User: Fold this.
Amino acid sequence: MVYTVQDKVVLVTGANRGIGKALVEAFLRYGARKVYAAVRNIDSAKATFPEACEEAKVIPVTMDLSKPETIQTAAEIATDVEIVINNAGIISHTGPLDDNTVERLQEEMTVNVYGLIAVARAFVPFLEQRNGCGILVQLNSVASLRCGVSSVATYSASKAASFSLTQAMRQELKPKGIHVVSVHPGPIATEMLADALKEFLDVAEPPSNVAERLIDALTSRNESCDKPNPPFLVYPDEKSAHLGTVYERFAKRVVEEGHSYG
Assistant:
């Protein structure tokens, strides 16, 4: 028996647009039993997935990563979840020495880092009950690994922090039977990219590529087992794959094997 996402219950944060929307659509296409669409305004999810909401295949839930109480309330609704994907995040066009750098960094840390902590705290108790099949996915970024554009310095800093936390969560949650996956997209054609880094739109890939490659990662290493065995690091597009190749040796030695030096 092979592990698949068919009949699984999934929760996606930031589900009403961009990568989040593509993730919801892909999981439904691959037969997920139900997807909780976690958004700040549930009307946006109802408008984005009208038919699926009518059929109760998509369940909109209110969640704002800057408000931990909404995350806890959503977790109390989605108690049957098996796969949690923390996709929501914010980005600003802010350099390292701008007048508003500290303010923007605080905003991005609140959502991109503290939000991740709150999501994990709220949902780990339920994922732990899945008998080794619970999965926590964090949408990080190539900017988690390298700040290649100074105009998104605060975003890169927040995503580097979220990646560090993702690594720590992987270690802490493995004994609980929870699989942690860190996804590192490069330029993806979303409203967020258009707002902050429109100069990369010409080389950006569609959000559907991220969704397809994540599902492939969750299912492709399970030829003889009905439990998930996903890789920790997923590079879902051509640009990120190039960086991932360079990062691979370091990742294997430091992230995978736990060596700190040498």
Observations:
- The beta strands are 9-13, 34-39, 58-62, 83-86, 134-139, 178-183, 233-234.
